[in-house]
Amino acid sequence: MKKIISFLMAAAIIFSMVCGSVVSAFAAEEDEMATAQALADNYDWEKFKGQDITLNVFNWGEYMSLGQEDSMDVNKAFEEKTGIKVNYQTYDNNEAMYTKIKSGGAEYDIVIPSDYMIGKMINEDMLQKLDYSLIPNATLYIDQKFKGLEFDPNDEYSVPYTWGVVGIIYNKTMVNEPVDSWNILWDEDYAGNILMFGNSRDAFGIALLKNGLSVNPSSMEDIEIAKQDLIAQKSVVQAYVNDEIFDKMGGNEAALAPYYSGDAITMIADNPDLDFAVPKEGTNYFVDSICILKDAKNAEAAHMYINFLCETEVALANAEYIGYATPHMGAYEMLDDETKNNQIAYPSDELLTNTQVFNTLPEDINTAMSDAWNEVRSYSESGNTMLVPTLLVVAVVALVVINVLRNKKKKKIDY
Predict the structure, then answer these.
(1) Is residue 345 part of a domain?
(2) Alpha-carbon torsion (333, 339, 341, 343), positive or negative
(3) Which among 123, 178, 243, 396 could bridge 61 via Cys, Cβ 3.0 to 4.6 Å?
């Protein structure tokens, strides 16, 4: 009996401790939300008016509502509200953005990379920690399930902007079979009508999935398998694309292409012959987030820009225009039911269980993949990856020889 009483007492103590911890956590969260709400209610949007500040923003192409098709011009609205000018430029993939910033070729304050690239930039000390007292809207509105993610576990460097999955967009008038596998992007029946990602991480991710591997290669063998498959695909690929896909798929210039779900929605709206499918082998689930660069000249103004992007009406305008899923709870609630039920924009939990997130790769793996991608892109159908460079060398040598002969001939004549 004593043992039973002791057990019950111990259980009661543990139960009270657990309940106390849960209550404390809820109380802490309530305090955090109350503080954020007070900061939001008293936010000084005019702090920088008259100071002639320009904010340099670097974002993906077609990735913000800027007045197109009568949508809100987010940057213009920000300028009017704050007096801060926005110099807005775009890139078409994470690697191009990273290279430009890393090379020092341009100075930016705000950038919106994807998950794995954020992790890489954190590791290389390219981003600065955020001050959440300056971005209370992020605390109030970003869904908890988009916080504490692998690439930024403590939410110190990034605020989620959009999320989605990769799939295959295809033309229903040109494809006469089910689009349910990545293998179709290697199908010779569609040779010359297949587009492929123009960046290494997405392309290798697809090849790895096709081979039943993780989208995060862990060995040189993984990279070699994917490289050989991508080389084998070259004979059926019309072009490697990023933003060019809009014109090509919209203009019925290709039958199949892998791309991001949000952009697929935009293309389908412009061309009803198009559709979108997620292959059975699984796919990549991504989260793109807003960051401030380490050497940003206007860090406080950059925080204000992030807070503005997290205003409900602004987040809603972006979600409605660009078509990507929003992590902003207020904006999501204001979407129409058709959009909320759109399985391309907001895929089911069942589909999401068959997705993988791109992790930040070890530097040796990342370098090997980059080198392998260069081999894929330079590969010729003759099987010689060095064909083009070799031809260039031959041409240069030939020109040198010709010039030498000409000079010798001229000297003989002069003599």
Answers:
(1) no
(2) negative
(3) 243
For 63-73, b/e burial (b = at least 16 CB within 10 A) is: bbbbeeeeebb
3-state class (DSSP) for residue 159: strand
Q: What string of pLDDT tens digits covers the 415 residues of the chain?
A: 555 555 555 545 545 544 454 445 456 678 899 999 999 999 999 999 999 999 999 999 999 999 998 999 999 999 999 999 999 999 999 999 999 999 987 899 999 999 999 999 999 999 999 999 999 999 999 999 999 999 999 999 999 999 999 999 999 999 999 999 999 999 999 999 999 999 999 999 999 999 999 999 999 999 999 999 999 999 999 999 999 999 999 999 999 999 999 999 999 999 999 999 999 999 999 999 999 999 999 999 999 999 999 999 999 999 999 999 999 999 999 999 999 999 999 999 999 999 999 999 999 999 999 999 999 999 986 544 444 444 444 444 444 444 444 443 333 333 2
Residue 42 lies in a domain: no
Residue 5 resides in a domain: yes
Going through 192-280 in order, the beta strands assigned E by DSSP cover: 194-197, 237-241, 256-260, 274-277
Domain assignment present for residue 291? The answer is no
Residues 157 and 210 in one domain: no
- Alpha helix ranges (H) inside 57-164: 74-82, 94-102, 115-123, 136-141
Are residues 25 and 90 located together in one domain of the fold? no
Q: How far is CA 274 from CA 169, 243, 248, 265, 368, in A?
A: 7, 17, 12, 9, 36
Q: Domain containing 124: what range?
A: 54-161+296-331
Distances (CA, A) of 228 to 86, 164, 232, 233, 242: 44, 28, 6, 9, 22
Indicate the number of domains in the chain.
4
Name the residue type at position 404.
V
State the Cα–Cα distance between residues 172 and 177, nearest whole angstrom: 9
Cα 93 to Cα 288: distance, rounded to the nearest angstrom: 12
**Which residues make Cβ contacts (< 8 Å) with residue 2, sequence separation at least 6?**
none
